[in-house]
Each structure stands twice: as structure tokens, then as C-alpha cells.
Predict the 3D structure of the following.
Amino acid sequence: MTIRRIKTGLRWRVRALIKKCADCLEYLKYYLLYPFAALYRSRDIWIVAERGTDARDNGFHMFRYLRENDPSRAVYYIISADSADRKNVEPYGNIIDYGSLKHYLFFIAAKVHISTHVMGTSPDRSFYTHKRSRIRLPGKTVFLQHGVIQCNLKQLYADKTRLDLFICGAAPEYDYVKATFGYRNNEVRYTGLARYDQLHDFETKKQILIMPTWRKSLRARRASGDAPADSVFVRRWNALLKNEKLLNAAERAGVTILFYPHIELQRDPDLFSSPDPRVIIADFAHYDVQTLLKESALLITDYSSVHFDFGYMKKPVVYYQFDPEDFYSRHYAPGYFDHRTMGFGEVTDDEAALVDLVIDAMENGFSAKEPYRQRCEAFFPLHDKNNCRRIYQEILRLDS
């Protein structure tokens, strides 16, 4: 056994011990505060959150709708005091600091929990997601989702989550979740995603957005001491950012390229780079994903669900899928969505072919081609600005 493996094993044992101690402390906090939370239960409290550190997704858009359309309701948004997104929430008031005493009390007392993530309103999402069966959590749980589901996410099955309302953003997704995930008829609803209300008014720039999703294999590499920079994933995307043919074409067309790494990879800011000043490595602190999606004329992604947002706006997508075996075997299991027969653009695993597709899109003014435009329209039969209103009506039905 090598010294590195011994060190890795010791690190995992120490982490496991720390996690066990943290879990015990969380149990203690919950049960000590449970009797005091009873003082707030008569206030009909609704709490909204995303991950506790952000406010730019379906949770924020739903909170804003509630504050603007039902201002007398006791609805609160949970976000950390140092979050870069706190300024988004401040104009609407009713903010609770993530992890504060008030957060714990309102979390236990709330009549309705609304979040983009399972147990996203909790003071510790990982703990309460895994321990929910052992904890008496009052109130109803509304799952707004982080994006449209396309894979078979067994961690979102009914017996794992105990959700009271599961919001869907597209018709085929709704049919799949309803048939596969084990929820009862009234627990799954197709309303459209809250943030989609804002995808109708936008001005497109001469800008390409590159946004691949995360890989669990990268977490495994990091845990074992192997550098993510040496992975096929990082090397292939960096090669694209340095592709001379693509960069020269972008310069001729006056096009800017933004590369937005998944949030899990932004802790390693030097993983991705390009010698061309036209290529911008965007980050969470300085760039809003929805703004990037609205402003960009073309999206390049692999399997990220952001392609649904782009398809909703009927804008062209190119899929760069060079590792389907790794993704579907180690990241997510295949679901109902087939990118080649249902996707909103061409699919390729070859860098040269990808560059040719992007250049062709530039030369054709980034216009969406058929049959992809028709696929977008069929996938989203609800295409209006009433998603938040429909979700609100479903929550009222649930609450009553």
C-alpha cells in the first residue's frame, strides 16, 4: 500500500468522524428548538430558498412573485448574509439569514417549504435530506426544481423525498416523472418553471455560451488525490477553448465566447483557460446564468439541463458529447430524453465537427433550424408568463 493511499484512507476516516459529530450536533439543535418553534406555527409561515447561498433560480423568481402579488402573506427567503445574490432579495424584504436561530425556528415552524432542491430550506441540506425519515418536520414541501429533468434520477423518487408537490417544466418531463417516480396524481404538476416567466423578453448579443455539466467522476478523482486537470473532461473542453479555427472565426464575426464552468468546478478557477481575449471564463460571483442564457445567440453544452432554457427561447443548441459511457454509467442513468431524436440541435463527439457546426451557425445568423424549432414548440406547450401564477395556485390548493 502506497503512502498516498494511506493518507487518503486517513483523510476519509477523519472526514467521516467529523461528519458524524456534525450530524449529532444537528440532531441536538433540531430537538432543542422544536418546542420553541411552536410559538410561530400560528403565523402560517412560508419559507423559500435555493441552496441557502443564492437567489437567481426558480426559488428567487417564485419569492419575488409572492411578495409582489401576495404581500400580506408571511413568506420569507433564506440566504446567507455574505451571498453575492443577497442584493437581489433585499428589495422584497422578509429575509432570513441562513443558519441563524431564526432560520432554525422558521424551518421547523413553516407551513410550506418551497425550494429548488430537496430540503433546500433547511439549515443543512445534506443532513436533512438523508435524515428526513427520522425527523418530524411539519408543513408541506414544494419542489420547484433546479431545471427540467431528462435522466432517471432515482434520488428524486417519491419514497426518497416525500415531496408534497413536484413542479415540472415541460410536458414530456411531466409524463415521465408521473409514470416513473412513484408519486400520486395530485403530487406532480405541469405548470412550467418559475424562472421561465422571464425568458420571453430578451436581446441577443453576438455571444456564444459554453456550459457543460458536472461529472461525479471528477469528485472521485479529487478525493483520490488525482488532479481534475488531467481528466478527459477538462482536457477536451480546454482544447475547444484554444481551437484556432473557432477563435479565428469568432474574431472575424465579432463574436464573444463565454465559458461557464459548473458551480462544482468553480472552486478550481485555473482549470480552464484560453489565450484569446474573446474567450471569457465566467464565474458565479460575476455572472448570472439566466442573463447569459438570454443574451447568448448559441449554446454549446453536453448534457446540462440549461439546454431546455435555450430551447424554450427557440435558440440554437449544439451538443458536444464525447463521454456518454462515463456520463450515463457514473453520473446519471438514462431517462426518457434522447438528444439525437428529441434535442434542440446537432449532437457530435468530435471537436472538428463541433467547430464546423458553430461556424455554420455564425454564418447563418444563429437562426434556429428545423426540425429543432418544432421540437422546442412541442416540448413546451405551456409558453407564457404565467408559470409562477400556476405554481402559486397549486400551493394554495396544497395548503388548503
Observations:
- The mean pLDDT is 92.
- Residues 3-37 form the longest helix (35 residues).
- Residues 238 and 272 are 6 Å apart (CA to CA).
